[in-house]
Design brief:
Elements lengths: L2 H11 L4 H14 L6 H23 L1
Helix pairs in contact: 1-2
Length: 61
């Protein structure tokens, strides 16, 4: 899913604008101590989650 589509979905769910959602995401990333674009942050987080799931699957077998 593209970042723009994600922004639109979240904005619709919370009755706000995609611009406001983007602003909040950027503020949260900065507050967490990261200086990167949201798309990169999301991709890195997704990669870590995938790795953790795979490791858990391996340890359960």
């Amino acid at each position: 899913m593209s970042y723009k589509k994600l922004l639109k979905m979240v904005a619709a769910e919370y009755n706000t604008t995609p611009k406001e959602v983007d602003s909040e995401i950027r503020a949260a990333i900065k507050a967490a101590g990261y200086d990167m674009e949201p798309e990169l942050f999301i991709a890195l987080a997704a990669s870590k989650v995938s790795s953790a799931i795979e490791q858990q699957k391996k340890s359960n077998n």
